[in-house]
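To: structure subgroup
Subject: Chain for Friday's discussion

All,

I'm putting the inputs and outputs inline so they're searchable in the archive.
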Amino acid sequence: MKFSLVIMVLVLLVAGSAAQQSEPSQSPSVDQAPAPATLAGQSSPRGLQIEGAAPNYVTGGVSITQMFSDNAELTSNDRVSDLSWEIMPHLGLVHSSTRLTYDLNAMGGFVVNRTLNDRNRSTATGAADLSYRLTQFVTMRLSDSFMNTTGLWSGLTPATAMASGIGAVQAPNSSVFSYERFRSNTALGELSGQLSASSFAGIRAEHSYTWFPDGASSPLVGQLYDGQIYTAEAFYNRHFTARNWGGITLRAQRFDLEGSLGHTDSGSALVFYGVNLRPNMSISFFAGPELSVTSAPQGIVPSSPTFARRQWTPAAGAVFAWQGQRTSTNASFTRQTNSGGGLPSAVLLTSGTADILKQFGPRFALGPGFAYTESEPIIQTQTLRTYSGLLQFTYRVGRNYTFNGGYARDGQIAVGTNSSTSADRVWISFSLDFIRPLGR
């Protein structure tokens, strides 16, 4: 199943909805706050609010970043220090109207290493989120996020990262097990409808994959494996008051390991609750039972595997988001079956992230961030924990010039053993940017 199949399904559903009687576009009641992003299957807004920003604009520029790492190969021993440079042009387009809204971002460039010349390569990152109102009460949404980079250069600035529109509950395992090259893509299609003044329902499908074009390995578990996720969801959301929401999502997933080495099928029923504490602040919770059934991959599982091919586990999590003009905060916790991210089976993933960005004066912003994951393979191989803590800053010079920089410490631990590895990263970046309103 490819994402093209998702598009075909959506086209058929669109054709059916087009047969309905067309009515003028109409926005939801003004006294009803929108559903928190988690209930809508979306990611929370990141970064600071831009006061008085035009609804339609184009942004772009180029950044030059220099990074030093004291363990550029993320090995347990024989550490190699390296100095590298990344040159990255970027372009974004934002549009908002009654029927059509989209946010498109693309970055492409190359990385040059002083010591590890074999890692000189092109890099690319892209994100798109589009929402289109087909009729008065039916909306289609498409989202996509793509990365072609290395673990060394990923996840530097979570508080200012491009938002793909794909929520914390739907996101694949993002654990960094290697600093080597990887590619990933997550695509989502959704069709939702307003059933009444206070209820919404819909379906969504998602396809995600992660692969290592040059091969990659973790210093603690060895070879990393390519994998894919296929997801189908049906959801129903209802708002009880102007700020309080509840919902239920039925989900089926398949986690494939390199297409033929094995797979895990899972099904879950998740109950959601969310509240908009303020117009720009929300908190959401979800929980429910999850059943997974695993087909053992040949050639990877130990000769006498001792694992439950069929098991029930709880899925649960919480997401908090606050986006202000001077302070932005995001925090999330999830525990559910997810992809291995390179490990030789699907995993029970426990993950937590938090970041804060605080603006001091008109030019300077500073904030810490932290990410933690524990990947417990369903097939009882080695459980891995990863963590990354960072401190980043932004300093604007005029309207078009920006200095960014920060420090990060990454780590990887094999649970129940003395095996671990860690690395420090320091970077400084200069960017030339522009923003132009459209439609004037």
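Points worth raising on Friday:
Confidence is low (pLDDT under 50) at residues 1-31, 158-162.
The longest strand covers residues 420-437.

D.
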